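Write out this protein's structure.
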Amino acid sequence: MSTGVIFPGQGSQYVGMGKDFYDSYQPAKDIFEKADSALGFSLTDIIFNGPEETLKLTYNAQPALLTTSLAVFEIIKEQIPDITGYAGHSLGEYTAVVAAGGMTFEDAVKAVQNRGKFMQEAVPVGAGGMLAVMGAKRDDILRMCEDISRETQSVLEPANFNSAAQTVLAGNIRAIERALEKYREYGIKRAVKLPVSAPFHCSLMKPAADNMQNYLKDININELNTPVYSNVDAKKEKNSETVRENFVKQIASPVLWEDLISNMIEDGTKSFIEVGAGSVLTGLMKKIDRKINCINISGIGDLGKLEDLNV
């Protein structure tokens, strides 16, 4: 059975994630220790002991999620015999590229820590924000973004096309606040401001993308042994230079998650495994195609689900 492996992005983190794997499996423990060694401080201590405020800082959350996902994947990968594609939500694309043999873990964990710093520094804290909108057509959302951007002389853009039921917008705070006042006029059922510190995946992140391009030019990226489906264009990719370009583009471009998953299904993926913290992507899968079987492996108690998937 062809299986897609998917990795979560920022927002899925929680204090204590991965600790049961660390305590029970030496190869998982090794991944956490490699992260600490590569970064020069104990990321493991922040992941396991918090406080939550420290863990959710962008430059901690991103390497923490990558480390946890790859520690869990290290334990289960031999039990997934037919992996036909990988994908990761936003920073999860780095996790996917490591899993597909494209980067060393050490290079990736340092890269996403820097990515987090660049993204946080791109826009002053409080100057930008993000808004989830539910129950709306894509065309109506795009129309609202155009109208409000023009009206407020600022940025409001789609950041994540997560499913037909949920899209996330990003932009300047005045545009976000105006959208909260006007969203019903566009047939949008619900809008919720997200507790994030920056407007990710929109054109305001261009300075971060430029910094990342400069950082990545010296990082070794290999041809992938299994395709990774890109956030940027939803297409599968194995070419190392395209992977590098996509890492840069994704910072200031919307995450095409719904399109990406649809393409994986169209290419014959029959089941999905979300590997790492939480079950956000498993929840989105039900909204994208409820016929597709998707499980999440977040803790040791989830390992029995691998048998249910018939892998």
